[in-house]
Amino acid sequence: MDEILANIITDEDKEEVVRYIKARVKIIIHEKVSFIPSGIKEHDTRLSRRDN
After folding, report:
1. From what superkingdom does this record's organism come (predicted)?
2. CA–CA separation, 50 vs 52, rounded Å?
3. What percentage of the chain has pLDDT greater than the value 90?
């Protein structure tokens, strides 16, 4: 019985889960970055102009 349970989740399954999680994290990070308010972006641009 233990052998059967040990083989239910294979290494391939684990790799697939890791790939899925990595893809979801990339999507979430992209969504967070794309929702930066435009006022902050403009402020950053003004700061970089001063440095030049």
Report:
1. Bacteria
2. 5
3. 25
pTM of structure: 0.50
Q: How far apart are CA 25 and CA 18, in angstroms?
A: 11
How far is it, in rounded angstroms, from Cα 48 to Cα 17? 41
Domain that holds residue 15: 2-51
In order of 3, 28, 38, the CA distances from 16 in angstroms are 22, 18, 37
pLDDT tens profile 3-50: 776 778 888 889 999 999 999 999 988 888 776 666 555 555 555 555
Q: How many folded domains does the chain comprise?
A: 1
